[in-house]
Automatic annotation (TrEMBL):
Belongs to the HAD-like hydrolase superfamily. EYA family. It comes from Anopheles epiroticus. The lineage of its organism: Eukaryota, Metazoa, Ecdysozoa, Arthropoda, Hexapoda. The keyword Ribosomal protein does not apply. It is an enzyme of class 3 (hydrolase). The keyword Lipid metabolism does not apply. Binds 1 Mg(2+) ion per subunit. Its EC number is 3.1.3.48. InterPro entries: EYA (IPR028472), EYA_dom_sf (IPR038102). Mg(2+) binds at residue 105. This is Eyes absent homolog. It catalyses: O-phospho-L-tyrosyl-[protein] + H2O = L-tyrosyl-[protein] + phosphate. PANTHER family: DEVELOPMENTAL PROTEIN EYES ABSENT (PTHR10190:SF16), EYES ABSENT (PTHR10190).
Length: 141
């Protein structure tokens, strides 16, 4: 991040992230805990599908400190092809025998998940992140 922003802007950005964390009741930290739990499991990976173009999406991943949980090869842009097509590419890459769980907040990913018979976990509030964390912690997912 320092290379992207320079030291002074980096410090300012880290303060902004800290302020956001405070105002959102640690939304980012709890989400990062969930993502780390998945990433640390044997034979499990996090895959990000976004409608943002790829380069800005990768920049956001770096800015929010998510590079360790979303390796670059697991970041897909649905900007031109749509989320369902991205999900199909992911299935082609990882295989039909893998288990997939789609986590998101939008109708497009929910519909794409439904069309591919993937479970969908809606995140629309802080309590949804807490519930996801609990489900992961207890081994339900």
């Amino acid at each position: 991040v320092g290379g992207l922003l320079g030291p002074q802007k980096r410090d300012h950005w880290l303060q902004v992230r800290s302020d956001i964390e405070l105002e959102t009741d640690s939304w980012h930290s709890l989400t990062l805990k969930c993502l780390n739990m998945i990433a640390q499991r044997e034979n499990c990976v996090n895959v990000l599908v976004t409608t943002t173009q790829l380069v800005p999406a990768l920049a956001k991943i770096l800015l929010y400190g998510l590079g360790q949980v979303f390796p670059v090869e697991n970041v897909y842009s649905a900007n031109k092809i749509g989320k369902e097509q991205c999900f199909e590419r992911i299935v082609t890459r990882f295989g039909r025998k893998s288990t997939y769980v789609v986590v998101g907040d939008g109708q497009d990913e929910e519909n794409a998940a439904k069309n591919l018979n993937f479970p969908f976990w809606r995140i629309s509030s802080h309590s949804d992140i807490r519930s996801l964390h609990t489900a992961l912690e207890m081994g339900f997912l």
